[in-house]
């Protein structure tokens, strides 16, 4: 009976039902206070009905905190997704801090692009290291021929593969996720048919915008284990302003190829935070509310500073000269000769009206005042001395939420070398993690599809490629992004040398961190350069290092080996002094 009454009250007056539930919990906590460790002093609000204070519904600090328990899908429903996307996109257009955080992340995660370095597993393939190196060179040349040509790799024929990486990362962070399709399009004069088509998150939706159901959530078709089996893509963007008579249609794209099992549709996430989550939230979602408030305050402070920079004057009027309707004549351009004895203006004494004078703030403007008017100067005390400390404090909080130090967002490394380096290293932990996910969700699957095409067309021969294990061995590669850089090149180089010497690092790791290149590529280039200098006789190895010079040929064409440049420039040499 009680439950029926409670449901009836909740249907008619939800607010009263909430209060009844809170009072019921309060009474129960007071009744069982001795059994659950309630405090012995204070009023009823100090009792805890739960062992964890954070779960209490009675404590004054927690009584007004109502949080619903939902799944990874229901806690990010379609309506909220659309609102977050729209506000995130508006934020990067209007809020400098929002754009700074987004562009800083994109620049350091991808930058000029993640470069592919094929690295086949020659042990699994049963080939020698030299054979593997020759194969890697062949695979890299084939990849670069496709990746560096926008007509070959981009369905929109606009960006090369490295530009597609940047756009995919930025779109996923801005909208929560991004879809990459792999249509087959052969263009005149082209070689490859594989193309990459990036689809914005808004076009991934359930056909006819039907409500979610088991196995189809927000445009993603799922199997019994929750793995995606396909994606429904809308033919146009729901926000398109184009005038068209064609209603939207939805096309189903299988997630994996039927014959190869390769992933055909890449789902690039901003971040997957919960098991069972199907769609992602935008990168700026946690800070949109404080970001909006901070932007409004910044705009107001900027406007106040602009106004205070002008010659600000408040005009205190004397005796007003009014017309018969009670309006000040000076406001309408009439200039009276003076009031009559009765205090009223003789209309016959008015000169012809002149254009009204606009009284407004200006840069050093001087306005002629009427008789009896006074000029009072105002000092609004702007700029606000507390603006910068408070602004930086808010950016620190938002940066901590985004895993980006405020020094990195604002590009101001005002502290010591140690503090600046710590901020940079912490930011690079975030960038490195996002870079790894970009490789896993976008780069590696595309590389595998490209290799499939090369083998299928016979342009590259890879024995045993149909075997999944050997195919994986052939598909191995390393993606190298822009280097982290260094605050002090000499200190960084000395630290790298020390780490290698004590055995906690190696040349491959340090080379990738400092230059963004693979150690093998750098080493091979060094060998080629040294051999070239040997052939040209433009170098000589001395105990103090490599001495380089320009050779001088004898008349008969034989090279002349000059003396050591260090000896030639030695001022203490007595022969040189003579």
Write the layout of secondary structure elements.
Blueprint: H1 2-12, H2 14-31, H3 33-36, H4 78-94, H5 96-109, E1 115-118, H6 122-125, H7 129-147, H8 150-153, H9 161-175, E2 177-181, E3 197-199, E4 216-217, E5 220-222, E6 228-234, E7 250-254, E8 266-269, H10 288-308, E9 313-316, E10 374-377, H11 387-402, H12 406-410, H13 417-456, H14 468-475, E11 477-480, H15 489-502, H16 507-515, H17 519-536, E12 539-542, E13 545-548, E14 552-553, E15 559-560, H18 565-568, H19 574-577
Antiparallel strand pairs: 1-11, 2-3, 2-8, 4-5, 5-6, 6-7, 9-10, 12-13, 14-15
Helix pairs in contact: 1-2, 4-5, 5-9, 10-11
What does this entry look like structurally?
This protein is 42% helix and 10% strand. With 578 residues, the chain is of the alpha+beta class. Among the domains are: 2-55, no CATH class; 77-94 and 147-287, no CATH class. A hairpin with a 2-residue loop joins strand 4 and strand 5 (220-222). Helix 4 crosses helix 5 and helix 10 runs antiparallel to helix 11 (387-402). The longest helix has 40 residues, at 417-456.
Question: What keywords describe this structure?
Answer:
19 helices, 15 strands, 578 residues, 3-stranded antiparallel sheet, globular, alpha+beta
């Amino acid at each position: 009976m009680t439950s029926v009454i409670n449901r009836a009250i909740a249907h008619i007056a939800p607010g009263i039902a909430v209060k009844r539930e809170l009072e019921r919990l309060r009474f129960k906590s007071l009744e069982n206070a001795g059994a659950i460790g309630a405090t012995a002093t204070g009023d009823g609000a100090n009792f805890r009905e739960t062992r964890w204070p954070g779960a209490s519904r009675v404590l004054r600090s927690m009584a007004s905190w109502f949080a619903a328990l939902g799944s990874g899908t229901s806690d990010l429903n379609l309506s909220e997704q659309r609102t977050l996307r729209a506000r995130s996109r508006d934020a990067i257009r209007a809020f400098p801090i929002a754009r700074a955080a987004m562009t800083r992340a994109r620049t350091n995660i991808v930058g000029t692009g993640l470069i592919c370095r094929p690295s086949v597993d020659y042990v699994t393939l049963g080939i020698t290291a030299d054979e593997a190196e020759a194969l890697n060179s062949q695979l890299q040349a084939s990849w670069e021929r496709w990746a560096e040509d926008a007509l070959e790799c981009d369905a929109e024929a606009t960006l090369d593969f490295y530009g597609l990486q940047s756009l995919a990362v930025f779109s996923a962070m801005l909208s929560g996720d991004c879809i990459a399709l792999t249509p087959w399009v052969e263009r005149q004069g082209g070689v490859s048919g594989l193309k990459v088509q990036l689809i914005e998150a808004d076009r991934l939706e359930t056909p006819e915008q039907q409500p979610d159901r088991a196995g189809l959530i927000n445009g993603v078709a799922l199997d019994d284990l929750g793995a995606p089996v396909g994606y429904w893509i809308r033919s146009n963007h729901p926000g398109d302003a184009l005038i068209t008579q064609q209603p939207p249609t939805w096309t189903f794209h299988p997630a994996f190829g039927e014959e190869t099992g390769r992933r055909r549709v890449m789902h690039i996430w901003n971040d997957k935070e919960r098991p069972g989550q199907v769609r992602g939230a935008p990168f700026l979602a946690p800070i949109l509310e404080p970001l909006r408030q901070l932007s409004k305050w910044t705009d107001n402070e900027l406007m106040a500073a602009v106004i205070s920079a002008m010659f600000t004057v408040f005009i205190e009027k004397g005796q007003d000269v009014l017309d018969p309707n009670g309006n000040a004549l000076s406001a309408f351009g009439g200039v009276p000769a003076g009031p009559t004895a009765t205090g009223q203006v003789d209309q016959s004494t008015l000169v012809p009206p002149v254009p009204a004078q606009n009284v407004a703030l200006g840069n050093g403007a001087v306005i002629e005042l009427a008789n009896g008017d006074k000029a009072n100067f105002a000092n609004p005390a702007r700029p606000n001395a507390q603006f910068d400390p408070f602004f930086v404090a808010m950016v620190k909080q938002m940066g901590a939420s985004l895993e980006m130090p405020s020094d990195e967002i604002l590009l101001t490394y005002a502290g010591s070398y140690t503090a600046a380096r710590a901020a940079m290293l912490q930011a690079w932990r975030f960038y490195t993690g996002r870079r790894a996910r970009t490789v896993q969700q976008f780069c590696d699957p595309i590389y595998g599809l490209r290799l499939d095409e090369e083998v299928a067309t016979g342009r590259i021969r890879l024995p045993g490629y149909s075997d999944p294990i050997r195919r994986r061995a052939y598909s191995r590669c390393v993606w190298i992004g822009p280097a982290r850089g260094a605050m002090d090149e000499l200190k960084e180089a000395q630290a790298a040398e020390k780490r290698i010497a004590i055995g906690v690092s190696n040349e491959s790791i340090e080379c990738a961190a400092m230059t963004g290149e693979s150690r093998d590529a750098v080493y091979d280039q060094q060998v080629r350069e040294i051999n070239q200098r040997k052939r040209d006789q433009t170098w000589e190895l001395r105990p103090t290092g490599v001495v380089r010079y320009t050779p001088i040929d004898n008349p008969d064409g034989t090279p002349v080996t000059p003396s050591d440049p260090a000896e030639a420039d030695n001022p203490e040499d007595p022969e040189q002094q003579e």
